[in-house]
Structure formats: structure tokens, C-alpha cells
Design goal:
Uridine Diphospho-n-acetylenolpyruvylglucosamine Reductase, domain 2; Uridine Diphospho-n-acetylenolpyruvylglucosamine Reductase, domain 3; 2 domains; 6 helices; 12 strands; binds flavin-adenine dinucleotide; oxidoreductase
């Protein structure tokens, strides 16, 4: 009886070992795929494309700026050529139709390569980040400085620009509450401009600006968010270790 039990366990361990070597966790494919380097158009998929309102979105082309200046050039090009434009993040967790310009006839600006800028002001308990920065990347950076975001959705695979534009939230009644945009203190927007201004410009919108509430929760309708500033709190990890 004891031999049968040992053999049974041995077989289970072998099956488990085979499964562990065959199964690999891989991140979802990039939601924006372009054919022939963009010449054949691009398709925006939803990372979780299982719901029927998450149909793919076809666009004429897509651009991948790396700096705020390149974002300005992308908006200027679209404005000059009278193209409809919307923004999509590296993650695209929202329904594609939210990020689909002109029912598919326009162009997309992806923030997937615009995510390196994180400037922490430790004394002022504040951080200013590029809109393409991922939430996990932001949390790691501020925690390393002994600070924390005051609110966060439970899902980390989202960008700063996408999460504030859609009013993403956790759950808290403490302080200003669990909606991330309620902890935003400033937004920089790239907006279309007159030809004499180069067809696009950056506007910096602070808390006292009458456009502030619209700019921080815009569903991507007011321009391209280039930078976002957040008020931070002292990390609870610092209290525990200090
Ligand atoms: C598994 C899962 C769990 C989730 N959990 C939560 C949760 O706990 N709480 C919650 O509130 N939400 C949750 N969500 C929803 C998620 O937070 C939102 O869908 C969020 O908008 C996704 O961010 P994104 O970076 O993928 O944005 P995208 O889907 O790329 O974009 C969202 C919208 O913002 C616009 N946008 C993006 N970047 C910019 C920019 N730089 N400038 C201007 N407009 C821009 C786009 O045009 C689009 O309209 C969850 C989603 C999933 C799939």
C-alpha cells in the first residue's frame, strides 16, 4: 500500500515538473500592430478582447514619440494635415473605440515609448511624470524615495495618462479619496495651435486653472497629455522602518 502511495506521488510530481517546464507566462502582445512599417495601416486591439464592444480599430498610421517635443511635432503634423488624432497607451486596457480616431480614418499617437521621465520633489511631496509611464514603474520610483501615491487602482498594468483620463480609482475614503485624478496637481497638454505658433503647443494647467477638472479627466478629448504632477504622501513603509 505504501509503495503504491509513493509511486502515485512520484507520478504527480513528474506531471507537475513537465507542466512547469512547458507553461510560460508571457505578457499580452502590443495592442497596436502596424503593417509594412505603418504604410499598410495599423490595427488597435484590446488587450482583453473578449467583450463585444471591444472591436478592433483600424487607423491610417501611428507614431511613437519619445519626448514632449516629439509629441508636439506629432500633433502639429496631424493639425497641419487636418487628420483626426487620438492617443493610446502601451497597455490599451480601455475599449478601443475610446481611443479610435474618426471611426478609423485618423492617426494614433502611442505613448508606449514616452515613459522615461519621473521627477520626484521629495521636500514638496510631489512627482511629475511623462504620461506614458506605467503605474508599477511610478509606484517603484516614489517608494524608493520613501513616498507613496495616495491612491491607485488595483491593476498596475496601466499608464499614467490612461488611468487619469478614465477616472481610474481604488477604494478609500481617507483624505481626498481613492480616485487617482483627485491627487493630480497639474497637467501638461499638447494642443493644436495656429500656423504662426507651429500648429501645436504645450499648455500647463494647474489646480487654479478653470480647465483643470476637464483636463485631468478628459477621456482623451482635450489634447495629448504629456506630463502629470501628483501630490504624494510619506510611505507607510517609512513609518514602519523609521
Ligand atoms: C484587468 C483590469 C483591471 C482593472 N482594474 C481597475 C481598477 O481597479 N480600478 C479602475 O478604476 N479601473 C480599472 N481598470 C480600468 C483601467 O484602469 C482603465 O481602463 C485605464 O484607462 C487603462 O489605462 P491605459 O493606460 O491602458 O489607457 P488606454 O486604454 O490606452 O487609454 C484610455 C483612454 O485614455 C486616453 N489616453 C491615454 N493616454 C493619454 C494621453 N497621454 N493623453 C490623452 N489621452 C490619453 C485614450 O485615448 C483613451 O480614451 C482595469 C482594467 C483591466 C483590464
Amino acid at each position: 500500500m505504501r509503495t503504491v502511495k509513493v509511486q502515485f506521488t512520484w507520478w504527480w510530481l513528474q506531471i507537475l515538473a513537465v507542466q512547469l517546464t512547458l507553461i510560460h507566462a508571457i505578457p499580452p502582445a502590443a495592442p497596436l500592430q502596424c503593417q509594412d512599417g505603418g504604410a499598410g495601416g495599423c490595427t488597435l486591439f484590446n488587450s482583453y478582447g473578449v467583450w463585444n464592444d471591444r472591436r478592433d480599430c483600424r487607423v491610417l498610421n501611428a507614431t511613437y514619440p519619445k519626448t514632449e517635443q516629439e509629441l508636439v511635432s506629432a500633433v502639429a503634423y496631424a493639425n497641419k494635415n487636418k487628420l483626426k488624432v487620438k492617443v493610446v497607451s502601451k497597455f490599451s486596457h480601455t475599449i478601443p473605440k475610446l481611443a479610435c480616431p474618426d471611426g478609423g480614418g485618423g492617426v494614433l499617437i502611442s505613448t508606449s515609448e514616452y515613459g522615461s521621465g519621473i521627477e520626484i520633489d521629495e521636500a514638496g511631496l510631489a512627482v511629475t511624470v511623462d504620461a506614458g509611464v506605467g503605474l508599477r514603474q511610478l509606484i517603484d520610483a516614489v517608494e524608493a524615495a520613501g513616498l507613496s501615491l495616495a491612491a491607485s487602482p488595483y491593476w498596475e498594468g496601466v499608464s499614467v495618462g490612461g488611468l487619469i483620463s478614465t477616472g481610474s480609482h481604488g477604494s478609500s475614503w481617507w483624505g481626498r479619496g481613492g480616485a487617482v485624478h483627485d491627487h493630480v496637481t497639474g497637467v501638461s497638454l499638447v494642443v493644436p495651435a495656429k500656423p504662426s505658433e507651429g500648429y501645436a503647443k504645450v499648455v500647463r494647467i494647474g489646480e487654479k486653472d478653470p480647465l483643470f477638472n476637464a483636463a485631468r479627466l478628459s477621456l482623451g478629448m482635450l489634447g495629448v497629455i504629456s506630463k502629470v504632477s501628483f501630490q504624494l504622501v510619506i510611505s507607510s513603509n517609512s513609518w514602519l522602518s523609521g
